[in-house]
Specification:
CATH architecture of the largest domain: Alpha-Beta Complex
Bound molecules: octanoyl-coenzyme A
Oligomer: single chain
Helix content: 40-55%
Order of helices and strands: EEHEEHHEEHEEHHEHEHHHH
Number of helices: 11
CATH superfamily of the largest domain: 2-enoyl-CoA Hydratase, Chain A, domain 1
Structural class: alpha/beta
Strand content: 15-25%
CATH class of the largest domain: Alpha Beta
Largest sheet: 6 strands, mixed
Number of strands: 10
Shape: globular
Radius of gyration: 19 Å
Distance between the termini: 35 Å
Length: 256
């Protein structure tokens, strides 16, 4: 299996599983990735997604240069052949945690950047080597990176194609924490569980407000926040959360 998609309680996990090719994304993996994202999006019982790679060497070395890149070239001339864009698939209301276990290069780095939170193994590294292939990132790298780290560092990564290690990524604020390899999945799980304790509709509203803030004026953003805030008063989760606080018990959120 090029990709493993599992669900346990409220947490779903996608694992890129082509260790023989540094978990590079071939057409099958891309299709399975898109299908898993769509399933997670529609599944009312799955609240948080963790994305990781099999083994300790690679999270994902990007698009498979041998099988995927030629196909992408074909799609350029026949855009109707394009599968659902992974970028579109990752525009999820629900939170996504990247558990970056090793090399995250090209499209792999871009998938990591599209996650809301990133936990890196000490063995992780991040880079956009597309320029070495005569390409540029096509899954959001040129757009997300300069919005996430200082422009000079983004330019260094995007223009030289050289990767940065996990500690440098942490220093730049690109990852939330760096942990030893054995601690990676437990740390991602712990973060996912912490999120799952909260009202899921509130978590999604917070994510929406936060992401949209980047392309709105402060005035527009404050109005959006007020609309999302006001809408949450109408939810069962709001009644449950406030009721549980007053009754000094744990809330039992249903996402309604
Ligand atoms: N594609 C295909 N095969 C790969 C890839 C890849 N991206 N990465 C590694 N492999 C394969 C190698 O071909 C090799 O296979 P084989 O043993 O059959 O020859 C095997 O993995 C081991 O690789 P190396 O021998 O090169 O091992 P090293 O330890 O020397 O190096 C690296 C590992 C650093 C991962 C190196 O292989 C490398 O640089 N790989 C290419 C990484 C890269 O350039 N990624 C960017 C690809 S382009 C991209 O992602 C664009 C995304 C945007 C698309 C937008 C579409 C809409």
């Amino acid at each position: 299996m090029a990709l493993i998609y599992e669900k346990k309680g409220r947490i779903a996990t996608i694992t890129f599983n082509r260790p023989e090719a540094f978990n590079a994304m071939d057409p099958t993996t891309l299709q399975e990735f898109s299908a898993s994202l769509m399933d997670f999006r529609e599944d009312a019982d799955s609240w948080v997604l963790i994305v990781t790679g099999a083994g300790e060497k690679a999270f994902c070395a990007g698009a498979d240069v041998k099988s995927m890149i030629p196909l992408m070239r074909e799609w350029r001339e026949k855009p109707w052949l394009m599968p659902p864009s992974i970028v579109r698939g990752m525009e999820l209301a629900k939170p996504v945690i990247g558990a970056i276990n090793g090399l995250a290069l090209g499209g792999g780095c871009e998938i990591a950047l599209a996650c809301d939170l990133r936990i890196a193994s000490e063995k992780a590294s991040f880079g956009t080597p597309e320029v070495k292939l005569g390409l540029i990132p096509g899954w959001g790298g040129t757009q997300r990176l300069p919005r996430m780290i200082p422009m000079a560092k983004a330019a260094e990564i995007l223009l030289t194609g050289a990767a940065i290690d996990a500690q440098e990524a942490y220093r730049l604020g690109l990852v939330n924490k760096v942990v030893p390899p054995a601690q990676l999945m437990p740390a991602a799980q712990e973060m996912a569980e912490a999120i799952c304790k909260n009202g899921p509709l509130a978590v999604r509203a917070a994510k929406e407000a936060m992401i949209k803030a980047k392309s709105l004026s402060l005035e527009e953003g404050l109005r959006l926040e007020w609309t999302l805030f006001s809408n949450l008063f109408l939810t069962e989760d709001f009644k449950e959360g406030t009721g549980a606080f007053v009754e000094k018990r744990k809330p039992n959120f249903q996402g309604k």
